[in-house]
Specification:
555 residues, mainly alpha, two-stranded antiparallel sheet
């Protein structure tokens, strides 16, 4: 475990603060605690830097969408292909180990940065508002630390665990703590800090605008604490971490996810239009619980726009496997000669198909058929006949003649739709039926899924009463793949379900006929899978440094 001296690097303020630019990161050389925490602005900068390690998976050349069956990476030199071509190893570990740096910073603050008075500032006009902010910092930092531990356990299972600052030598003697113990820690931390965090930062007397409409944004909230607890309990109940299928764990997960649903109802967090989940204002989406601000960029667009466009690279191309998950709205089978008309509306919002006018700055409709402007055999054209829309800004011009730095992008870490589906899964696993409820679990699993399907602009037919358990489970997993596509869930869901990994993906081959019609043929590409891939390999470099650190099985 590589643990460094405390060092704060340069980072863009917009990462967390969005348009108000009030959550600044700071750069420091190496100083001791007395220097860093003697000043409020340096203390605030230190805490803000802990935020800077928050994860996001906007569509990039390393997006996990192309490490599972949601997408295929068109750039055949991308390292994300290592996940599915057999090149993944302890020497090529796709390391998630870096979250320990953020955990150490959190531990350092909690040991050295609390109970300060900043007495030299006590006569300044905003002293009390600054102190109100400061008094929340320990709770914010504890929640961030819990979240980083969740990311580590999700990837590795048992991992080294500490809540104190260790020297590098001490850190490299730690053995692995059980995932169950760390899950318990995460849950207890979420429960402890939730009451101390605000529901929203809008209207707080100590915000930078005096309680009006432009507060410091991007900070963790009570809702994030409840959401992290609920997601953690869902993972703990899943087969990867619950081999004995203890039903009580599913009950705890269902109760926690229902608590999030009720919290949202009580605080005006509601399902809105599906397309509100991306775009320059998605941080204001009505169902957002916590949003990670990324800043102004055009990288997702240059990575993923169709190959015929200047500076575009095709990127993460949705698979036919994903397209097949979008049901026909009338319940029929797709027409093999017109396979897209009548599909779940979320498909057209997420995926660009042959003939679509996408993006807005593209002068020509898409030609993804073989020999078309955007199709094979052009180098790096989509191998699946599809291009990505979701999380991309179709209004961006990425041509060389423009000088724009891009538009605001944000990553929604937690949103209501996820927790309706989480609840449906956990309640179904505990109650044993899609139509069951109890005094504690008042919403049936079927009703929870149907709320998602009934969202504005989607309005898919409800799951019917009386579904068999097998039918509900199959359709639930399908619904989750569709609703949460490209939101960083699919790669992990298949692992926690432990129902077999990613062994293949489907592609669509489109041929232009002489009469101007098209022929459609599905093909399959095999992927490399081994059950050891349910967990990440611990980096070989960490194993070599720590004699007490054992490798995950099979690696």
């Amino acid at each position: 475990m590589k643990l460094k001296n405390i060092y704060l690097g340069i980072a863009c303020a917009a990462l967390l603060s969005g348009c108000s630019d009030k959550m600044d990161y700071h750069e420091y050389t190496i100083y001791d605690a007395e220097y860093v925490f003697a000043d409020f602005s340096r203390t605030a900068g230190f805490v803000n830097n802990i935020y800077s390690s928050l994860d996001y998976d906007l569509p990039s050349t390393t997006s996990l969408a192309s490490a599972c069956d949601e997408a295929e990476m068109a750039l055949n030199y991308s390292s994300v292909l290592d996940y599915t071509n057999g090149s993944w190893s302890a020497l090529n570990p796709k390391s998630q180990w870096g979250y320990y740096s953020a955990i150490r910073e959190a531990n350092y603050f909690l040991e050295n940065g609390v109970d300060r008075t900043f007495s030299d500032l006590q006569y300044t006009e905003d002293y009390q508002s600054q102190m109100n902010r400061y008094k929340r910092y320990p709770y914010e930092v504890r929640l961030l630390r819990a979240y980083y531990y969740f990311l580590l356990v999700r990837a590795y299972g048992d991992v080294p665990f500490t809540t104190t600052v260790l020297t590098e030598a001490e850190a490299n003697t730690l053995s692995r703590t059980s995932a169950s113990t760390i899950f318990d820690f995460i849950v207890s931390e979420c429960e402890a800090v939730a009451p101390e965090l605000p529901i929203t930062y809008y209207g707080l007397e100590d915000d930078a605008a005096g309680g009006t409409s432009d507060p410091e944004t991007g900070r963790v909230t009570r809702g994030m604490a409840l959401a992290l607890k609920a997601r953690t309990l869902l993972y703990r109940a899943s087969k990867l971490f619950n081999e004995n299928e203890d039903s009580q764990l599913w009950k705890e997960a269902a109760v926690a996810n229902l608590e999030v649903i009720n919290y949202c109802a009580e605080n005006g967090i509601t399902l809105g239009a599906y397309t509100d989940l991306w775009g320059t204002s998605n941080y204001q989406a009505s169902e957002a619980i916590f949003v990670r601000r990324v800043g102004d960029t055009s990288s997702p667009e240059t990575t993923n726009f169709p190959i015929s466009m200047e500076n575009a690279n095709s990127g993460n191309c949705p698979t036919q496997t994903l397209v097949d998950a979008y049901e026909m709205k009338d319940g029929s089978e797709p027409d093999p000669n017109d396979p897209y008309t009548g599909r779940d509306p979320r498909m057209g919002m997420t995926i660009a198909v042959n003939g679509d006018e996408w993006p807005n700055t593209n002068a020509y409709p898409l030609e993804t058929y073989y020999g078309g402007r955007d199709g094979l055999p052009i180098a790096y054209a989509t191998p699946t006949s599809y291009y990505l829309k979701k999380y991309l800004d179709g209004s961006i011009d990425i041509s060389a003649s423009t000088s724009s730095g891009g538009t605001r992008h944000c990553w929604i870490t937690f949103r209501l739709g996820e927790f309706l589906l989480n609840y449906a899964e956990a309640a179904f696993k505990y109650l044993g039926s899609a139509d069951a409820s109890s005094s504690e679990l008042t919403l049936t699993p079927r009703e929870a899924v149907n709320r998602v399907r009934a969202r504005s602009g989607v309005n898919m037919p409800a799951f019917p009463e009386g579904m068999t358990n097998d039918a509900f489970w199959t359709r639930y997993k399908n619904e989750r793949m569709v609703e949460l596509a490209f939101e960083g869930h699919r790669f992990w869901d298949v692992r926690r379900w432990k129902e077999g990994g990613f062994t293949s993906i489907k592609r669509m081959n489109i041929t232009l006929n002489d009469d101007g019609s098209f022929s459609y043929a599905t093909t399959t590409k095999s992927l490399t899978w081994d059950d050891k891939m349910y967990f990440y390999p611990i980096p070989d470099s960490e194993i070599r440094k720590n004699p007490n650190l054992t490798q995950n099985s099979g690696w």
